[in-house]
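Re: weekly structure request thread

Next one in the queue (236 aa):
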Amino acid sequence: MATANSYRSAHLSVSIDHVQSNNVSYFVADVYISDLAYFRTAFAGGTYGRGLSDSVPAMAKDNDAVLAINGDYFGIRDQGLVIRNGELYRDTPFQDVLVLYHDGSMETYSAETLDMNRILSEGAWQAWSFGPMLLDQGQVMSQFNSKVNPDNPRTAIGYYEPGHYCFVVVDGRQAGYSDGLTLAEMSQLFFDLGCKTAYNLDGGQSSVMVFQDDLVNQPYKDGRNSSDIVYLTDQP
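Done, posted below.
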């Protein structure tokens, strides 16, 4: 069953809310999945590597995504942990990391506290390297491992419990419509949503959300290509 802002099947439930307040516009996709097989990531052109990119809508369509957001744009760097759909591609630490484990739990780590042996032995399904982390043990943060603190378009993932997550995309840099959010405001947003863990992905012009092949948000300068997406599918 699907509507303009919701989708429900035996495996997947998605409900998208649009919030417009105080010169900020953002979208919260509340997500339930029955199995991690439906929570996936994809590379531009289906290939891991630097310098490869495609639009989020195109990658979403190529992978039968019900819902998709931009990822961490790993292909712009030669550092950062990259684990996608259970496969390790790169193990070089880079700033804060988000790990989605096979049991459905999510945890964030700084580069200093990242234990690769533990992550691999406990079974990582996905791992992203961009950041920063937005909650500390479920609590609001005021200091972040990032220099991009002012109002900006943002993309982030929140975690409630295994099988229950949220994807958030904030529009910004558009006077009269949406200024964007600071990292401190993002932290407060995820705290207010009740998340235990939250993590910032690539943002700015990269911030894009696609639902059932339609663009949900209003990306800055029409968005830009990226090396990867995070997506939900009914066809794992």
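The helical segments are 56-62, 116-121, 183-193. The CA atoms of residues 32 and 227 lie 25 Å apart.
Next request, please.
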